[in-house]
Amino acid sequence: MTSPSIVWFRDDLRLADNPALRAAIDREEPIIAVYVLDDGSSGLRMPGGAARWWLHHSLASLRERVTERGGVFLLRQGPTAAVISELVAETRAGAVFWNRRYGGPERELDTGIKAALRQRGVEVRSFAGSLLFEPWTVRTGSDTHFSVFTPFWRACLALPAPRDPLPEPRELHGPRTAPASDDLDDWQLLPTAPDWAGGLRETWEPGEPAARVRLREFLEEDLPHYDTARDEPAAGATSLLSPRLRWGELSPFTLWHDATRQEGAGRFLSEIGWREFAWHTLFHFPQLATRNLRREFDAFPWPRLKPTRLAAWQRGETGIPLVDAGMRELWHTGFMHNRVRMVTASFLIKNLLIDWRRGEEWFWDTLVDADDASNPFNWQWVAGSGADAATYFRVFNPELQAKKFDRDGHYVSEWARDAPTEPIVDLGETRKAALAAYETMRRAR
DNA sequence: TGAAATGTTGGGGCG
DNA sequence: ACGCCCCAACATTTC
Fold first, then answer.
1. What pLDDT score was predicted for residue A119?
2. Terminus-to-terminus CA distance in chain A, angstroms?
3. Predicted local confidence at residue A444, as pLDDT
4. What is the pTM for the complete model shown?
5. Which long-range contacts (CB under 8 A, 24 or more apart) does A116-125 make?
6. Residue A439 CB lies within 7 Å of the nucleic strand C
7. Residue A393 CB closer than 7 angstroms to strand C?
8. Nucleotides of chain B touched by protein CB (<7 A)
9. Could you say which architecture CATH assigns to the domain A1-129?
10. CATH fold group of domain A295-444
11. CA of A272 vs C1' of B5, distance in Å?
12. Which of A12, A109, A342, A414 is the most buried (most CB within 10 A)?
């Protein structure tokens, strides 16, 4: 009589360095891998359109890899807690393992599931797989959490080094008869009418093997001049690993292990540090996507939304070349170079005076790498309302930014060749209006 | 992980 | 040779 182990996959769509999967292997019972597509009833934020496209293909890749190794990979849809509970009953599973999540609704859900299963005598264990440093382990001298990045990251680096990554299993043994699974196509994660995913297909190959290829390539070819070239959107020198980390195709432990062995990786690793900082911030402030972290920004006098301006920004029709290039890269590829993200975000917030939440929602729907922490965190960083944020009066001038970081215009001509050239707003005047609005907010305190 | 305004300095043209 | 002015180039302050 067997009592299978369930490995519940979530934001960790990989075989290598997967501690939950490792624990199941060590338990030496048949393994049932499962991914649950929640129907939204649990308060979780559903992935946006581009993210669903990625999820589909990453799941397809992982399922194939599990199957190749003799395992089973199930797809189930419904309210998460009920789905897991039913699966345990149906398979008479003796254990459920997963890697931890750090968002508010996710933690609440996972805690409840853990308690309920344990009450039924099921072994439940969760593991650290998605963050190098778990939020409750990084504390200031006065036992609070950090609100400034530099001391935060210094404190992380002073902790015991992240563990070595775990090897990828060669074989997985499933139960004699596989439980039923949904058909991935029935989940309708891919866009159909219209199919707008052509640019995504041209740009990306989701899945763990391609993630590993890109990591190798980045470390060998791009990391040596990451410090300078990373700021130039046409240089192609950024890692492009953000969606790999978002979906867990690549473990941060693997990244850490490989990068720290190379000279001059400090800058890149500190970018990984910003990802950690964003997740820690979300852990301590679960409403990050909807509420200003700095409450004084609640008094910011956002004018009534002008939908045509928001639409012009979304479509890359602002008449500002670097902004339009960025927004078109985003629409086409599901990705935008980091510096251009800052410029387009600054333009929406400070030149169009549109609430950062509208921008956050658009990026959520169009980015393949948007996650619950980094996306709202970075929007609040630009808005000035976030943790260790840019002060509001730091307004990017997209023309100057283009001059500094896209001197030859390669990026703009790649993405905004036929974009309008008449700016919808005057950069100088709108900058002044934004500073005045900021001043109004400060006086309102 | 800003930009613009304002201040300072120093070389060169010129009377 | 000198003072004056102009203005780049850089530094500092302010938003």
1. 98
2. 67
3. 84
4. 0.97
5. A116/A81, A116/A85, A117/A84, A117/A85, A117/A88, A120/A88, A122/A88, A122/A93, A122/A94, A122/A95, A122/A96, A123/A94, A123/A95, A123/A96, A124/A95, A124/A96, A124/A97, A125/A20, A125/A23, A125/A95, A125/A97
6. yes
7. yes
8. 1-4
9. 3-Layer(aba) Sandwich (3.40)
10. DNA Cyclobutane Dipyrimidine Photolyase, subunit A; domain 3 (1.10.579)
11. 37
12. A12
C-alpha–C-alpha distance, residues A52 and A58, integer Å:
10
Question: What are the DSSP calls for A147-175, one per residue?
Answer: -SHHHHHHHHHHSPPPPPPPPPPS-----
| A337 CB and strand B closer than 7 A | no
- Residue bearing tokens 């500002």: A320
A338 touches strand B (CB under 7 A): yes
CA of A151, C1' of C15: distance in angstroms: 27
DSSP for A107-126 reads: HHHHHHHHHHHHHTT-EEEE
Q: Which nucleotide is nearest to A231 (CA to C1')?
A: B1
Domain positions in chain A are 1-129, 131-162+207-284, 295-444
Q: Which two tokens stand for residue A195?
A: 């199919």
Nearest nt to the A432 alpha carbon by C1': C15
Overall fold of domain A131-162+207-284: 1.25.40
Return averaged pLDDT per consecutive 10 residues of chain A, 445 residues in all.
93 98 98 94 93 98 97 97 98 98 98 98 98 97 94 96 98 96 98 95 98 98 93 96 98 98 94 97 98 96 97 98 98 98 97 98 98 98 94 93 93 95 95 94 86
Q: Does residue A390 reach within 7 angstroms of strand C, measured from its CB? A: no
Q: Which ranges in A250-305 belong to alpha helices (H)?
A: 252-259, 266-284
Amino acid at position A380, single letter:
Q
Q: Looking at chain A, how many residues does it have?
A: 445
CB contact at 8 A, A15 and A168: yes
Q: Quick one: residue A171, left, alpha or beta (phi over 0 = left, psi -120 to 50 = alpha)? A: beta
At A330, list the tokens.
Answer: 């985003």
Question: Tokens for A296?
Answer: 């004084």
**Strand B contacted by A342 CB (< 7 A):** yes
**With contact defined as beta carbons under 8 Å apart, do A94 and A123 qualify?**
yes
Residue owning tokens 């949904």: A182
Strand A95-99 and strand A123-127: pairing?
A: parallel
